[in-house]
UniProtKB/TrEMBL annotation:
InterPro entries associated with the record: DNA-dir_RNA_pol_insert, DNA-dir_RNA_pol_RpoA/D/Rpb3, RBP11-like, RNApol_insert_sf
Record has Transcription as a keyword: yes
The protein's name: RNA polymerase subunit alpha
Gene3D superfamilies for the chain: DNA-directed RNA polymerase, insert domain, RNA polymerase, RBP11-like subunit
Length: 225
């Protein structure tokens, strides 16, 4: 008699859940399959979970900008300012994949933090105490930050080229950590998956989005095969 590997229909059981993280048990799974499946799932979560980032910057009082300009009235130059802007944790109510503007208007001397940025309806900065820049004495700044929704890492040349606007490479990924371990039994395995986000998206959505992506990819249509 030829031994056949048993086939299972796995279920997902929620073990732990809060606004920033989720831990689930996926199983039963076939022997020696859990690790391969977990690695694929992990890559999909990192690469294809949508997030929000600052993609560009416009200084309304300056006629010409380039990537290494110094900004009048601001202590930081453009590269350092973008480094600070990448630390903003931005939450959006609806993923409509349309750019939106955030405004900074302040008179110095003043230290600008996340709480000083004016956001449109449906957009919230979660880390309000994060440092952005320093406005020098007797100077007033008027900055427009361009935010957008995307996935993974996107190069600046993807966003186009507009007058008085500087674009930056952007990391949209809202995932801070994904880990897993495998429980092995005699005839099957169980996968324990842990996901931690930056708080801008529901961990349940992250998991469902990853499985939906994989389901779309495996529904192949064979022609002349």
């Amino acid at each position: 008699m030829v031994y056949q590997t048993p086939s299972f229909r796995p279920k997902i059981q929620n073990l732990k859940y809060d606004s920033h993280s989720i831990q689930v048990l996926i199983g039963p799974l076939e022997k020696n399959f859990s690790g391969s499946f977990a690695n694929i799932l992990r890559k999909v979560i990192y690469r294809f979970t949508p997030g929000v980032g600052i993609i560009g910057l416009k200084v309304n009082s300056v006629d010409f900008l380039h990537a290494y300009s110094s900004l009048p009235g601001i202590q930081e130059d453009i590269p350092n300012l973008f480094c600070n802007l990448k630390n903003l944790v931005i939450k959006i109510d609806k993923y409509d994949y349309k750019p939106f503007n955030l405004i900074i208007k302040k008179k110095g001397p003043y230290i600008i933090k996340g709480e000083d940025i004016l956001c449109p309806l449906g957009v919230t900065i979660l880390n309000k105490n994060v440092y952005v820049c320093t406005v020098q004495s007797d100077c007033q700044i008027d900055l427009t930050l361009i935010g957008d929704v995307g996935c993974g890492y996107v190069l600046s040349n993807y966003f186009g080229n507009k007058k008085n606007t500087i674009y930056s490479d952007t990391v949209f990924c809202p995932i801070k950590h994904v880990s897993y371990y495998v429980r092995s039994y005699t005839t099957y395995e169980e996968l324990i998956l842990y996901i931690k986000t930056n708080g801008t998206c529901d961990p349940n959505f992250v998991l469902k989005n990853a499985f939906s992506f994989l389901q779309d990819k495996v529904h192949f249509k064979f022609e002349n095969v």
